[in-house]
Amino acid sequence: KEVMGVIGYPISHSLSPLMHETAFKELNLEMAYHAFHVHPDRVEEAIAGIRGLGIKGINVTIPHKVSVIPYLDEVDELAKEIGAVNTIVNESGRLKGYNTDGEGFVRSLLEADVVLSDKRVLMVGAGGASKGVSLALAQHGLKEIVITNRTYSKGEELAENCSKFAVSSALSLEEAKDKLNDFDIIINGTSMGMKPHEDKTPISLDNLSDNAVVCDLIYTPLKTKWLLEAELRGATILNGVEMFVYQGALAFEKWTGMKAPIEVMRNAVLRQLG
Ligand code: ATR
């Protein structure tokens, strides 16, 4: 059996093994997927292990997405721009890093028949997750992407990065709230919404436009308080499961060269989160 896997710290709650094993089974592939618990001090050895053991593909999750980079042979352009790798492909001993998180998100929008070229996007947040998604979106050709973040300077820095590919600027949370109806797609890339009794939401939806698409990168819970609120206001909502499934599908396709069985992958994840 060929071996794939994921490295993270901690890793026991990862849904990637279940999702990929389900895909392998569906396509009758002789492949296995293992979750590797890798301490931050052991990243270099872990990467050497991929080469030594001939592991075909590895996903990289928190907190190793940045620290793996120096040990790879090559990093693709988008991953370089984002400064983080979530997928490694072993091409006969040469390790190449990719970032399929942002691309996965873009693909989930496209699969939901969202046309990006005429859209104004508001990203709430400027951490690692927001960066990956914002840069992938910017590279896909949008009308505009605006970043709003609690720490304004971080939002400004991300907007400057995005402006290499699309019209981009930063707003304070207060300004963004007032101008919310300017945006067609609004994305929560912050960690707000994961804690069960949190009463604050990433940004007030009072000024939400009709026909807006509201997305959360979080998938536990499946519907954050913020997404529920958006749904009540009549928005189309998209939760983080789609991005998770599509980032996995893109990794699967790079490793196997085969089209990923999206439906069974999504169902396996949803059954588990159910
Ligand atoms: P990740 O890699 O998951 O994106 P991160 O890099 O720590 O994690 O980023 C977390 C994001 O959530 C940041 O945009 C952060 O805002 P700051 O840059 O101001 O720290 C945002 N965030 C986290 N908790 C928040 C809160 N209580 N209110 C507003 N924003 C919050």
From TrEMBL:
<comment type="function">
    <text>Involved in the biosynthesis of the chorismate, which leads to the biosynthesis of aromatic amino acids. Catalyzes the reversible NADPH linked reduction of 3-dehydroshikimate (DHSA) to yield shikimate (SA).</text>
</comment>
<feature type="binding site">
    <location>
        <position position="101"/>
    </location>
    <ligand>
        <name>shikimate</name>
    </ligand>
</feature>
<feature type="binding site">
    <location>
        <position position="77"/>
    </location>
    <ligand>
        <name>NADP(+)</name>
    </ligand>
</feature>
<feature type="binding site">
    <location>
        <position position="219"/>
    </location>
    <ligand>
        <name>shikimate</name>
    </ligand>
</feature>
<dbReference type="InterPro" id="IPR022893">
    <property type="entry name" value="Shikimate_DH_fam"/>
</dbReference>
<keyword id="KW-0057">Aromatic amino acid biosynthesis</keyword>
<feature type="binding site">
    <location>
        <position position="86"/>
    </location>
    <ligand>
        <name>shikimate</name>
    </ligand>
</feature>
<dbReference type="GO" id="GO:0004764">
    <property type="term" value="F:shikimate 3-dehydrogenase (NADP+) activity"/>
</dbReference>
<keyword id="KW-0028">Amino-acid biosynthesis</keyword>
<feature type="binding site">
    <location>
        <begin position="14"/>
        <end position="16"/>
    </location>
    <ligand>
        <name>shikimate</name>
    </ligand>
</feature>
<protein>
    <recommendedName>
        <fullName>Shikimate dehydrogenase (NADP(+))</fullName>
        <ecNumber>1.1.1.25</ecNumber>
    </recommendedName>
</protein>
<feature type="domain" description="Quinate/shikimate 5-dehydrogenase/glutamyl-tRNA reductase">
    <location>
        <begin position="116"/>
        <end position="191"/>
    </location>
</feature>
<comment type="subunit">
    <text>Homodimer.</text>
</comment>
<dbReference type="Pfam" id="PF08501">
    <property type="entry name" value="Shikimate_dh_N"/>
</dbReference>
<dbReference type="InterPro" id="IPR041121">
    <property type="entry name" value="SDH_C"/>
</dbReference>
<keyword id="KW-0521">NADP</keyword>
<comment type="pathway">
    <text>Metabolic intermediate biosynthesis; chorismate biosynthesis; chorismate from D-erythrose 4-phosphate and phosphoenolpyruvate: step 4/7.</text>
</comment>
<feature type="binding site">
    <location>
        <position position="217"/>
    </location>
    <ligand>
        <name>NADP(+)</name>
    </ligand>
</feature>
<dbReference type="InterPro" id="IPR013708">
    <property type="entry name" value="Shikimate_DH-bd_N"/>
</dbReference>
<feature type="binding site">
    <location>
        <begin position="149"/>
        <end position="154"/>
    </location>
    <ligand>
        <name>NADP(+)</name>
    </ligand>
</feature>
<comment type="similarity">
    <text>Belongs to the shikimate dehydrogenase family.</text>
</comment>
<dbReference type="InterPro" id="IPR046346">
    <property type="entry name" value="Aminoacid_DH-like_N_sf"/>
</dbReference>
<dbReference type="InterPro" id="IPR011342">
    <property type="entry name" value="Shikimate_DH"/>
</dbReference>
<feature type="active site" description="Proton acceptor">
    <location>
        <position position="65"/>
    </location>
</feature>
<feature type="binding site">
    <location>
        <position position="247"/>
    </location>
    <ligand>
        <name>shikimate</name>
    </ligand>
</feature>
<feature type="domain" description="Shikimate dehydrogenase substrate binding N-terminal">
    <location>
        <begin position="6"/>
        <end position="88"/>
    </location>
</feature>
<dbReference type="InterPro" id="IPR006151">
    <property type="entry name" value="Shikm_DH/Glu-tRNA_Rdtase"/>
</dbReference>
<feature type="domain" description="SDH C-terminal">
    <location>
        <begin position="240"/>
        <end position="270"/>
    </location>
</feature>
<dbReference type="InterPro" id="IPR036291">
    <property type="entry name" value="NAD(P)-bd_dom_sf"/>
</dbReference>
<dbReference type="Pfam" id="PF18317">
    <property type="entry name" value="SDH_C"/>
</dbReference>
<keyword id="KW-0560">Oxidoreductase</keyword>
<feature type="binding site">
    <location>
        <position position="61"/>
    </location>
    <ligand>
        <name>shikimate</name>
    </ligand>
</feature>
<feature type="binding site">
    <location>
        <position position="240"/>
    </location>
    <ligand>
        <name>NADP(+)</name>
    </ligand>
</feature>
<dbReference type="Pfam" id="PF01488">
    <property type="entry name" value="Shikimate_DH"/>
</dbReference>
<feature type="binding site">
    <location>
        <begin position="125"/>
        <end position="129"/>
    </location>
    <ligand>
        <name>NADP(+)</name>
    </ligand>
</feature>
